[in-house]
Amino acid sequence: SLSGGQKQRVAIARALVSQPKLILADEPTAALDSKSGRDVVEIMRGLAKEQHSTILLVTHDNRILDIADRIIHMEDGHLAQDTATPATTGVLSGK
Predict the structure, then answer these.
(1) Domain tally for the chain?
(2) What's the CATH number where 17 sits?
(3) Contact 67, 42 (CB under 8 A)
(4) What is the CA 23 to chain-centroid distance, rounded?
(5) 50: domain range?
(6) Neighbour count for residue 63 (Cβ, 10 Å)
(7) Mean pLDDT across 44-68
(8) Is the CB of residue 73 less than 8 Å from the CB of residue 84?
(9) Closest residue by Cα to residue 59 from 43, 38, 78
(10) CA dihedral over 36, 37, 39, 44, signed as positive or negative
(11) Mean pLDDT of the 19-24 span
């Protein structure tokens, strides 16, 4: 039987095998411990960068926010904050 982390990795591999331009990930770390969750998100990010894909990831797990290129915070169904991380500030502003 596969562990939660192994099942997540299999799901990611299946999602990325067709090299989609957009990957929608709803709480991919929800059932995982912090290390496994971080590993899963780092794998997703690495594969997406290799394939020039975009990941739209929905999470309540603040422990993985530092991996993101951009963070959009929603509150009560409305955009509360849109933050570019230091690595992408120039890209998002067009500089």
Answers:
(1) 1
(2) 3.40.50.300
(3) yes
(4) 9
(5) 4-93
(6) 13
(7) 89
(8) no
(9) 38
(10) positive
(11) 91
| Residue-by-residue DSSP string for 9-66 | HHHHHHHHTT--SEEEEESTTTTS-HHHHHHHHHHHHHHHHHHT-EEEEE-S-GGGGG
Q: Is there a contact between 64 and 37 (Cβ–Cβ < 8 Å)?
A: yes
* pLDDT mean across residues, the chain: 84
Give this prediction's pTM. Answer: 0.74
CA 28 to CA 58: how far, in whole Å? 8
The CA-to-CA distance between both ends of the chain, in Å, stands at 49
pLDDT of residue 88: 55
Residue type at position 52: H
13 or 71: whose pLDDT is higher?
71
* Dihedral sign from CA coordinates of 84, 88, 91, 93: positive
